[in-house]
Every structure is written in C-alpha cells, then in structure tokens.
Amino acid sequence: MPKVSDDIANCVFGAFNALPGKCKPRKRDDGTREWVPLSGIVLSTPSQNTKSEKPTRSLTCVAVATGMKCLPHSKLPRATGNVLHDWHAEILAIRAFNRFLLDECAALVASGLRSSAYVRWREDADGMNQAFQPFQIKEDVEIHMYCSEAPCGDASMELVMDSQNDATPWATPPLNNTSADPSANPDVRSALRGRGYFSELGVVRLKPSRSDSVPALSKSCSDKLALKQFTSLLSSTVSLLVLPSSAYLSTFTIPASQHNATAVTRCFGSKGRLSVISPSHSESWEGGYRFRPFLIRITSREFIHSRRSSPNPIPCNVTAVATPHFSSTLIGGVLQGRKQLDPRGATKVSRRSTWRAALEVAVSAGVPLVIEALKAESFKDMKSGESLNQRKEVKDDVRRLALRGWEENSGDENWSLEGEN
User: Fold this and answer.
1) Does any domain span residue 325?
2) What region holds the A to I editase domain (predicted)?
3) How many CA atoms lie within 13 A of 375 on its CB side?
C-alpha cells in the first residue's frame, strides 16, 4: 500500500509534469543534463467517495515551483516590488500558495457563495463592517509540503559535510553583534553563509551558499521554514485577509536520500534550536499564532530532475511557478523574456502583484478596515501598520530567542501602488 508521503510526492510530480516544456530542465547538446529543486504545496480534503468503507482524503497540488537562486542585496533598491528576492523552490512555492489563496478568495466573492473547496467566509465576521481577516482556510483542509532536496541551511548541513572531499570544519568566525545597539546581545553571531563553518550548527544562514557568490541577505530555506512554523504560511499581506490559525503546515515531505534525522530535528523540531520558545510563551501570542511544528515524512520517490538524476548534472537557470489559476516561466526573478528591472516582468507572486491582488479582494469583499490597512502610502507603511502588530510580535520573539542573527533583507520597501491602473 503506497505511503501518504509517496502520494504527496506523486501529486506534486503530476502538477510539474503538466507544465510546459520550456520551464523544465533539459538535456544539453553535449549530453549533460540540467537539474533543479522542486517544491509543492498539497491540500488534503475529505474524499467524496461514498463507496469507501474507511474515510479517505483527496490530494490536490495547489502550488508548484522550481528554482535555486536569489537576488543580490545590491539590487534590492531597484526591484520596486517587481523582482523576486528569493526564488528557491520552497520559498517560491509558498509565495504561489499565498497567491492561490488570494485568487480563491476573489473567486469566492465573485460567486456570492459562502465557501469553496478550500476557503470560506468566517462566520464570526458576518457584516464585515469592522472585521479583519474575513476569510479562513476550511477546518477540514490539511496542508502538506514536498521538497525534492533538503532545504538549504541548517537542515542540510550534515548532507553538505558528507558531500565534501574534506569535511574538516572551517575556522569559526569572530562574534559579531548585528544589533543597532552595540551593547545588546554581545554573544549573537551574525548569520553565516550557507556552506561556511560546518562546526556551527543550529544557526541562521544566508543565501547564496557559495563564498564566491555575490552577497545577498536572503535567509536559508531552513530558517524561513522554521519561522513559518510560528507565523503560518501566510505572508504579511495575505494575513490581513486570511486567518493564520488554519494556515500551518501539517507535514513536510523529503526524499529518503535527503533526510538526516539529526539535522531536521535540530532545525525544525520542538526539542531542537526552537526549544527556547516555551509552550507558555507561544500561547501568549494573539491572533491565532502558535508554534505548530510540522511532521517530517520520508518518501521513496525521487524527482526526475533532482541533483541525483544523472552524473554531474548542471544547474538549470529557468524557474517555474504555477497554481491552478496560472503558470509562469521565470529567469532572474522575473517573467522570462523581460529584463530584470522592467516592471512588465513582475510575476503574479511578486510583492507588487500580491499587494495589488489583496487590495482588490478587500475592496470587492467590502471590508473597510482591511481596505484602509492595504491602502498605505508605501509597501513599508503597509507592512509596519498596526494591523500587523500581532504578527510582528511573533516574528520578533522568534528571531530574538531562537533565530538570532536574522538581519532584515531591506531595501525594497519604498514604493507604492499609487497611480496604477
């Protein structure tokens, strides 16, 4: 009998296989093959099969993505919400999931119905005159994630060490306080590059991992996924419309070849680096936020374009992202065929497109407080608004206590939707 983890992997593979060939790795003229990480978000819902004696659940992949690069920090001021900062597959799949939720909410409003297969109006928010977060993911929906590679950063350090010809740890860097106050937290080390200093485990790491790459401040996928266990999968923008309490991952599936029990327990588990946040501390948060660790599942399935698919494969520079509502091919964090800083290259999962879509949903749903929060003068003002204070408190607590050294990847906030059609 197939394992649930294999079913989840197969579901993501099916969504990837349905994508056009132009966004997939290829075999080059010299015979070498390309590889790329794959990630997907799968929703599980009660099956409508009345003939089954036992309750069964249906799986649907609602977000799929490939990719392995990020934007250099020096380019952030020119991104103006149009260029993705991070298009590693895991992060892009989460962005696609957020866009999927917005599109589902928009369809729900347009239909006049109270619920769809995955999303419903909140019953305690009837009237909508004063309510934030008028929507929520339905209670019987479970959220699963599949990744073809171990997430970069802490969850893959043992795998990285094992792959080295010389696994001797590099020299440990000096302590470096990243706080604006030099006297604060003197023992906090700044975030490390992804593959540096193997002896340092359980720490925040940066992309790209190679020491000779152009510097960026995007945190590793391990760190971002760890934080999502506290903030939910929702972005700040989408959390103004959708209640976070039902938007947490239930399971996280990776291939057996990418699973190191020590690493994933240290990185994601309640007894690892996140254990410094006590249950009582988590329960003090408001707004539906809690520490909700996901269950790690192992699959025997391997992605056909994984790093292990052929000897010495070459990284693919083409990125794919899709939901049931759209699909796009990207290069350099923008739509393929567009220059990186061309506004017309913004994808549907970019900061600008997501903000615009959220505002359109709020207006069509007629939720005054959410409209007011989303009609900020700049993206920075929207994210720093009082309506997101509960979410900011959670993020600040986690970064201060468990993910120390997390530095904001700032520089792409001072732009607005004003003047757009």
Assistant:
1) yes
2) 63-271
3) 10
Q: SS3 for the chain, per residue?
A: CCCHHHHHHHHHHHHHHCCCHHHCCCECCCCCEEECCEEEEEEEEECCCCCCCCCCEEEEEEEEEECCCECCHHHHHHCCCCCCCECCHHHHHHHHHHHHHHHHHHHHHHHCCCECCCEEECHHHCCCCCCCCCEEECCCCEEEEEECCCCCCHHHHHHHHHHCCCCCCCCCCCCCCCCCCCCCCCCCCCCEECCCCCCCCCCCEECCCCCCCCCCCCECHHHHHHHHHHHCCCCCCHHHCECHHHCCCCEEEEEHHHCCHHHHHHHHCCCCHHHHCCHHHHHCCCCCCCCCCCEEEEECCCCCCCCCCCCCCEECCCEEEEECCEEEEEECCEECCCCCCCHHHCCCCCHHHHHHHHHHHHHHHCCHHHHHHHCCCCHHHHHCCHHHHHHHHHHHHHHHHCCCCCCCCCCCCCCCCCCCC
Q: Is residue 177 part of a domain?
A: no
Is the CB of residue 151 less than 8 Å from the CB of residue 222? yes
Mean pLDDT of the chain: 90
What is the value of pTM for the model shown? Answer: 0.92
The answer to whether 240 touches 358, Cβ cutoff 8 Å, is: yes
Rg from Cα positions in the chain: 21
Within 13 Å and on the Cβ side, how many CA atoms surround 295? 10
Question: Would you state the pLDDT for residue 216?
Answer: 81
pLDDT of 1 over the 50 cut: no
Instruction: Residue 380: give the domain boundaries.
Output: 4-149+221-401
For the chain, the first-to-last Cα distance in angstroms comes to: 53
Sorted by sequence, the CB contacts under 8 Å of residue 188 that are 6+ apart come out as 175, 176, 177, 178, 179, 404, 405
Amino acid occupying residue 322:
A
For 107-137, letters b (16+ CB in 10 Å) and e give: ebbeeeeeeeebbbbeeebeebeebbbbbbb
How many domains does the chain contain in total? 1
Percentage with pLDDT > 90 across the chain: 79
Q: Which residues of 352-368 are buried (b: 16+ CB within 10 A; e: fewer)?
A: bbbbbbbbebbeebebe
Domain assignment present for residue 188? The answer is no
